[in-house]
Amino acid sequence: MNNVEFIKIDLNNLETIRITRSYIGQNHSDINAIINNAGISGDMSKSSSDFTVEELKEATDVNFFGDFEIIKSFTPILATNNGKILNLTINENPNSFFYPFT
Q1: DSSP structure string for 44-96
Q2: What is the pLDDT of residue 63?
Q3: CA–CA separation, 57 vs 61, rounded Å?
Q4: What's the number of CA atoms in the CB half-sphere (13 Å) around residue 101?
Q5: For residues 11 and 20, what is the distance between their CA atoms, to the nearest angstrom?
Q6: What does residue 48 show for φ and ψ, rounded to 5 degrees?
Q7: DSSP 97
Q8: Residue 19 contacts by C-beta under 8 Å, 6 or more apart in sequence?
Q9: Quick one: pLDDT at residue 14?
Q10: Helix or strand holding residue 33 (H, E)
Q11: pLDDT of residue 42
């Protein structure tokens, strides 16, 4: 895996996406894949009616708007290289509602 570089981006801080986009453009303009494994699930033990608006906003900011910024920021570079973005989502704490490893 000599051609792989792992870069941490904080989806709560959109400036980190912009900084990374600039870094990739300057140092890896031939990039052809991005693997996005970011996201938050919130408290999966709660029922949907027990979430607060603040919790839902936080999840939406990260899981929707953060992913949108990744796609928007990196599509121009990836399109030039016929590249792809792979978005992954796996809850790190499986429960009775979501247990992907069965």
Answers
A1: TTS-GGG--HHHHHHHHIIIIIIHHHHHHHHHHHHHHTT-EEEE----SS--S
A2: 85
A3: 6
A4: 6
A5: 12
A6: -60, -30
A7: S
A8: none
A9: 86
A10: strand 33-36
A11: 76
pLDDT reported for residue 27? 93
Q: What is the CA radius of gyration of the chain?
A: 16
- CB burial class (10 A; 0-12, 13-18, 19+) of residue 46? exposed
Low-confidence stretches of the chain (pLDDT < 50) are 100, 102
Q: Are 12 and 66 in contact (CB under 8 A)?
A: yes
Residue 83: the pLDDT is 94
For residue 68, the one-letter residue type is: F
Q: What is the pTM of this model?
A: 0.73
Distance between CA atoms of residues 77 and 88, nearest Å: 20
In the prediction, which pLDDT does 97 show? 56
